[in-house]
């Protein structure tokens, strides 16, 4: 099941060609995207996603996206999706054809949630730490690196995941050249100690997480403490629980890091259940 819509809200045939062969999104990854989880017909964190979408577009010097048009496009896909089925809704915006008239390419596509994702939500994942080759201060010193933008240039991220899978792990936690923790290829790192949640600051060059933001809001309302501050790999190992958060996988427990099982697995499962309830309460 797939649903495809243009920016004008018209439904398109998902089996028919859509991009020109010289579209810069395909040729160079010159574009941005967002993935929004839709549950029971309601898009989660749509406005934060759209805000991040606009920020990413600005970082690439793309024309400012018409967010009202994107909202209509989102609604067109949701209205055509089967009632009661979860959906991963992708918003895609590219610079358009290299030899075109200067117009951009924009569309939204709804996709089902895979069984592998559902299994990872329930069972957790193993992860390895991999270098990403820059220091935390690079985001400010080198804005052309587009650190913190959600671009279509995901080849490195996907290569990292394949490397992990070839080395008996499911996922990756990127670390900076100074050993500090960054993020996952498609996720935000969250550690828990007692009733305190911590994550890496965007100033380190990571993508601000929408699911992490919702989780922190829910935790704060319940009296938990949240902190956005630098993390080290040893913080991940000593935590009560370690999670990777993302729109589609929600709050996924990491049970093994660099080949070693993390301590207190029962405590980590308990924390996951509590955090899942706090996160879900944001949408009741």
UniProtKB/TrEMBL annotation:
What are the recorded Gene Ontology BP terms? carboxylic acid biosynthetic process
Q: Name one GO molecular function term.
A: lyase activity
Q: Which UniProt keywords apply?
A: Lyase
Q: Name one Pfam family in it.
A: Aminotran_4
Gene Ontology CC terms, in alphabetical order: cytosol
Q: SUPFAM superfamilies in the record, alphabetically?
A: D-aminoacid aminotransferase-like PLP-dependent enzymes
InterPro entries linked: Aminotrans_IV, Aminotransferase-like, BCAT-like_C, BCAT-like_N, Class-IV_PLP-Dep_Aminotrnsfr
Family as reported in the entry's similarity comment: Belongs to the class-IV pyridoxal-phosphate-dependent aminotransferase family.
NCBIfam families for the chain? PRK07849.1-1 (NF005886), PRK07849.1-2 (NF005887)
What is the name attached to this protein's record?
4-amino-4-deoxychorismate lyase
Organism of derivation: Streptoalloteichus hindustanus
